[in-house]
């Protein structure tokens, strides 16, 4: 009977530990390939108008082309790897991704940059799972989108700021 209790407690401990383990996050699920995220503004001057980054399980990259994202196709950037310190600052952004976006029929949510207030770009890519892969242009104005997306846009803005500090 003691052995059964020990095995039970050991198994229960493993389950509890794995539930808290950050390795169970979306980015480490085995199917996650990358996330592209960033901000853009059309009526803007300088290099900071378009800030697009690519995040995978181990690295963060910055796009060097700074091309305004389009509505018809995913962003096609040329990426340069950033230091690991920058990756550490943003690696948790993947887990903030709102799963509701997968069900959106359109790639443009709200009116990004329609009144020169800018927009946010996000793209998710999963291996062998087109239902969880896609790209979206998101509005920066809270009143133009559901709250769940506003919180995510705020997180994108925070991460872009952190990268440039």
Written description of the protein model:
The structure is a single chain. It is built from 3 helices and 7 strands, in the order αββββαβββα. It is of the alpha+beta class. A 7-stranded mixed beta sheet has the order 4-3-2-1-6-7-5. The protein is globular. It has helices at residues 2-20, 84-90, 147-164; strands at residues 32-40, 50-55, 60-63, 79-81, 108-109, 119-126, 134-139.
Write out key terms for the chains shown.
165 residues; 23% strand; disordered N terminus; 3 helices; seven-stranded mixed β-sheet; alpha+beta
Layout: helices, strands, pairs:
Blueprint: H1 2-20, E1 32-40, E2 50-55, E3 60-63, E4 79-81, H2 84-90, E5 108-109, E6 119-126, E7 134-139, H3 147-164
Parallel strand pairs: 5-7
Antiparallel strand pairs: 1-2, 1-6, 2-3, 3-4, 6-7
Total strand segments: 7
Bin the strand percentage. 15-25%
Structural class based on helices, strands and sheet pairing: alpha+beta
Give the count of helical stretches.
3
Biggest β-sheet strands, sense, barrel: 7 strands, mixed
Distance between the termini: 59 Å
- Average pLDDT works out at 83
Rg estimate, integer Å: 19 Å
